[in-house]
Write a structure and sequence with these properties.
329 residues; Rossmann fold; 2 domains; eight-stranded mixed beta sheet; four-stranded antiparallel beta sheet; 12 strands
Length: 329
């Protein structure tokens, strides 16, 4: 896929999203949560970029900032080479057709007062693609059936469905406008394991049919490996490693990536990983450690790690890592 599809659809450069909090630091500076801190990467047409990391590392905030549900604090967001960071809502509205999101919780993200037909058709009417009538009903039925629901489901309400069916409604709503790029914010984490595989296969089928590009956010490394082409690892608001999925899983370079992979359960009682499991608590996003953000938990940390922020370097072709000792560990 990567060799055929090389046109960038999304590129972000030094993207930041800070949330102010009450109080000031010892030097008198205003405090803020650095949820997304100088993140850069690109996503190509038809590609799935997986994004993994611990809870609270900023994955969901990054996804929402990327499509401007949150206003960025700094940096650039290039959609097909146009910088949309300073676009107001009026200028963003046409781009909403191309950029959509599937939310994590399939129940709270759906309006309980609207039936499936209203939920799916709302954006179609808002963007004036269809007027209420036969053509709109036909389009709603088409997308609902593509997402694995039956025609008689369109006049039911969210509380009348199972979790998996509700997520299918969320997917139908996101894809009704025929977008080109979709942020998938942990779309299967709230579902049973047996249902997760159905939803993942559905998303992969729809991606192939519609030529979609995904940013797939998850904390489940096995799920990310199944669906992604490339994988980025996020820690305290920053990308610490980014590579093709096979390279990342077979040859992890950053100590944090190695620790995450070591924590994956293996169905073999005699198996022992040569990678150390991560220890300690994740630091506060308000008072970040000096130097490398991971130095307080890293078993390989040295004095330079506590003083200097590591640059992101291309260690091998397409394999990027932000570690002073990348390739040496």
């Amino acid at each position: 896929m990567m060799e055929k599809e090389r046109n960038k659809i999304i590129e972000i450069r030094n993207l930041k999203k800070y949330f102010p909090v009450k109080g000031k630091s010892a030097t008198g500076e205003k405090l803020c949560v650095k949820a997304v801190d100088n993140v850069s990467f690109e996503i190509y047409e038809g590609e799935t970029l997986g994004l993994v990391g611990e809870s609270g590392c900023g994955k969901s905030t990054l996804g929402r900032t990327l499509i401007k549900l949150y206003e960025p604090t700094g940096g650039e967001i290039l959609y097909r080479d146009q910088n949309i960071v300073k676009y107001n809502e009026k200028k963003m509205k046409p781009l909403r057709q191309d950029m959509q999101i599937i939310f994590q919780d399939p129940y709270s993200s759906l309006n309980p007062r609207l039936n499936v037909h209203s939920i799916v058709s709302e954006a179609l009417v808002e963007h004036k693609l269809y007027k209420k009538g036969e053509e709109l009903n036909k389009r709603v039925l088409e997308i609902v059936e593509q997402c694995g629901l039956s025609p008689y489901h369109i006049y039911r309400y969210p509380h009348q469905f199972s979790g998996g069916q509700r997520q299918r409604i969320g997917i139908a709503r996101a894809l009704a406008l025929q977008p080109k790029f979709v942020v998938c914010d942990e779309p299967v984490s709230a579902l049973d394991v047996s249902i997760q595989s159905q939803i993942l296969n559905l998303m992969m089928d729809l991606q192939e049919k519609m030529g979609l590009a995904y940013l797939f956010i998850s904390h489940d490394l096995s799920v990310v490996k199944h669906i992604s082409d490339r994988v980025g690892v996020m820690y305290l608001g920053s990308i610490v490693e980014l590579a093709d999925k096979e390279d990342l899983y077979n040859n992890p370079i950053h100590p944090y990536t190695r620790a995450l992979l070591a924590a994956i359960p293996v169905a073999n009682p005699d198996y022992k990983s040569d990678m150390s499991i991560i220890k300690g608590e994740i630091p506060s996003n308000v008072n970040l450690p000096k130097g490398c953000k991971f130095n307080t938990r890293c078993p390989f940390a040295k004095e330079i790690c506590k003083e200097q922020v590591p640059e992101t370097r291309e260690i091998e072709k397409g394999h990027f890592c932000a570690c002073h000792f990348a390739g040496e560990i």
